[in-house]
Amino acid sequence: MVNAIEGCNNENEVDALTLLRLSSMRSTAANHQYLNGCSMFEGIHHVAIICSNYERSKHFYVNLLGFPIIQETFRAARNSYKLDLDIGNGGAIELFSFPNPPDRPSTPEACGLRHLAFKVDDLDATVHHLQAQAVAVEPIRTDKLTNKRFTFFKDPDGLPLELYEM
Question: Which residue ranges form the domains of the chain, and what is each CATH number?
Fold first, then answer.
């Protein structure tokens, strides 16, 4: 275990509690993944969004943003849809519809999920595409910490979405 921990890029020191947790893990694969990657997590698998109008949100995410449909399922027992969308790199958006979902405050900012950010190669072209589809986009700004350009827009239910130029 010591060699794997020494190879970790994490700047935090490995304490006795961490060693105890690792030694109590039953799976060798789990130990290897945690030690070599310095994390048990490999990335975000999906983000779930509940929408107020399924057809409107489906049009927005599929036709305007261009996310391919993986699978669309109607769940009769819940009177709701679940739409799985491919956002690239193994990630997905799960778009749900439920009858009469309560509003979630986005403005002013409230505790909880703040926004979703999408990586883009060409921020100007992406903004132009959205504006051509009548999507209101905020002025482009530069992140003072990274010097990367970004902007925000909202989905049909007011969920803040960010475009972050890589």
Answer: 2-37 (no CATH), 44-102 (3.10.180.10), 106-166 (3.10.180.10)
